């Protein structure tokens, strides 16, 4: 097998990897991006609510016809019957379509994309990393590990994994129904979140996200507190509001997946970067990870560029960490602490939900409004 050399290899073509590959190629680095799956409508199913802030939709010029539903509001339900609502424009997307859009951006910028190629081995030979997939052997000075929460790349490199209190076990069901039923039961532009420490989920929440003719039903709880995930999920599905919304629907997908809600102990070592979920770069309160994956992919490449330009290769890890800190990482770290307080009891949850109606969660946490 002939070894092919690149400046940068990106492992995983989710949002983090595709943006890293796009920015790398735009900056003149020869770039390979691989994914173990096929990315696209007929390709892998990624369990995700697919909720995006409208600013992100605009920033990447995401075509309106690819949006599964435009959202104008968020309804927050506590199981004791108290409801809160929050206005704000957003979009719900299918990840297959969204991820393919981002991957195409990377390809258009000049990155080489190889699908159905899983990284199965990685080793350091002098100052380059050599990776092996089922189909080829590649080498590069820099590796972007954007291969998700279980990151095979970082596992092979023996980086420490997440603590169990920093992992959320989620279950997603896609429920096919008709548009008019969604509009009648959920509203035509509203996503719904469900909370209740005592009677529903100790540390986490559940959700109903409407797409065009499908409702994405999700549930997530801190993994070390899960006793029986299917039973706990059923408890959520049996809430009268949820039963009514799903009454005429048919299940098409059932998929468990993890969300990391605390950072990895390290995000960089020896020219390897943890980007997006592989680094735990996710909002610990909401589980939102798409924008952070995209930004961390960009910052990793900018750190390489700055290190090479200033001839300070020893500083690349610091550059990466500093950009992350400056833009959002300090807030995510503060949110991780706040999360424990918010989910301590139903009183705290309700206080948070009522503040959330009129404030951003980062404002609640950073201004210590709780
Ligand atoms: C149930 C659920 C709901 C969510 N809802 C939202 C939401 O509404 N909004 C939001 O912003 N975030 C949401 N998130 C979080 C969001 O999905 C992640 O934060 C985001 O996908 C992280 O992107 P990433 O690029 O880091 O990794 P991923 O999107 O996980 O991509 C990793 C890629 O790596 C590939 N890969 C894995 N192993 C290998 C290998 N050995 N070789 C090659 N490729 C490999 C995978 O096939 C995959 O394509 C949700 C997550 C879950 C689980």
Can you walk me through this structure?
It is built from eleven helices and 16 strands. The chain folds into two domains: 3-43 and 97-161 and 262-340, FAD/NAD(P)-binding domain (3-Layer(bba) Sandwich); 51-91 and 164-260, D-Amino Acid Oxidase, subunit A, domain 2 (D-Amino Acid Oxidase, Chain A, domain 2), CATH 3.30.9. Strands 1, 2, 6, 7, 8, 9, 15 and 16 form an eight-stranded mixed β-sheet that branches. Strands 3-5-4-11-12-13-10-14 form an eight-stranded mixed β-sheet. With 370 residues, the chain is of the alpha/beta class. 33% of the residues lie in helices and 30% in strands. It has helices spanning 15-26, 54-59, 95-108, 152-156, 179-185, 229-237, 240-245, 290-309, 316-342, 346-356, 361-366; strands at 3-11, 31-34, 51-53, 67-78, 83-93, 112-114, 119-125, 128-133, 137-145, 167-176, 190-195, 204-210, 214-222, 250-260, 268-269, 272-274. It is globular.
Indicate the topology:
Elements: E1 3-11, H1 15-26, E2 31-34, E3 51-53, H2 54-59, E4 67-78, E5 83-93, H3 95-108, E6 112-114, E7 119-125, E8 128-133, E9 137-145, H4 152-156, E10 167-176, H5 179-185, E11 190-195, E12 204-210, E13 214-222, H6 229-237, H7 240-245, E14 250-260, E15 268-269, E16 272-274, H8 290-309, H9 316-342, H10 346-356, H11 361-366
Parallel strand pairs: 1-2, 1-9, 2-6, 4-11, 9-16
Antiparallel strand pairs: 3-5, 4-5, 7-8, 8-9, 10-13, 10-14, 11-12, 12-13, 15-16
Bound molecules: flavin-adenine dinucleotide.
Residues 11-17, 34-37, 44, 46-51, 118-119, 146-148, 152, 170, 172, 218, 257, 259, 276-277, 282, 287-290, 293 line the site of flavin-adenine dinucleotide.
């Amino acid at each position: 097998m002939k070894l092919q050399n690149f400046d940068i290899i990106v492992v995983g073509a989710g949002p983090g990897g595709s943006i890293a590959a796009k920015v790398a190629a735009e900056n003149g680095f020869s770039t390979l991006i691989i994914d173990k799956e096929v990315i696209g409508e007929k390709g892998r199913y990624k369990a995700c609510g697919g909720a995006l802030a409208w600013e992100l939709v605009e920033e990447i010029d995401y075509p309106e016809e690819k949006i599964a539903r435009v959202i104008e509001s968020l309804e927050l339900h506590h199981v004791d019957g108290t409801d809160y609502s929050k206005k704000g424009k957003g979009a719900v997307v299918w990840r297959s379509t969204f991820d393919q859009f981002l991957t195409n951006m990377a390809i258009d910028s000049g990155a080489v994309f190889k699908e159905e190629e899983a990284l199965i081995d990685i080793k350091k030979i002098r100052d380059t990393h050599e990776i092996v997939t089922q189909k080829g052997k590649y080498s590069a000075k820099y590796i972007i590990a954007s291969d998700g929460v279980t990151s095979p790349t970082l596992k092979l490199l023996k980086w420490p994994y997440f603590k169990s209190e920093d992992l959320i076990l989620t279950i997603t069901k896609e429920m096919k129904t008709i548009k008019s039923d969604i509009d009648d039961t959920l509203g035509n532009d509203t996503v719904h979140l469900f909370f209740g420490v005592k009677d529903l989920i100790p540390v986490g929440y559940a959700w109903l996200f409407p797409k065009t003719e499908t409702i994405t039903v999700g549930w997530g709880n801190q993994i070390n507190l899960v006793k029986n995930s299917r039973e706990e999920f059923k408890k959520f599905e049996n809430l009268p509001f949820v039963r009514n919304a799903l009454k005429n629907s048919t299940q098409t997908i059932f998929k468990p997946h993890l969300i990391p809600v605390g950072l990895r102990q390290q995000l960089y070592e020896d020219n390897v970067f943890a980007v997006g979920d592989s680094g735990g770069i996710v909002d610990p309160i909401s589980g939102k990870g798409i924008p952070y994956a995209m930004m961390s992919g960009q910052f990793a490449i900018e750190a390489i560029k700055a290190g090479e330009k200033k001839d300070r290769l020893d500083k690349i890890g610091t550059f990466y960490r500093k950009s992350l800190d400056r833009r959002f990482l300090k807030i995510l770290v503060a949110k991780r602490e706040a999360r424990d307080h918010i989910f301590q009891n139903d009183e705290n949850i309700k206080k948070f939900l009522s503040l959330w109606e009129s404030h951003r969660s980062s404002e609640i946490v950073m201004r210590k409004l709780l």
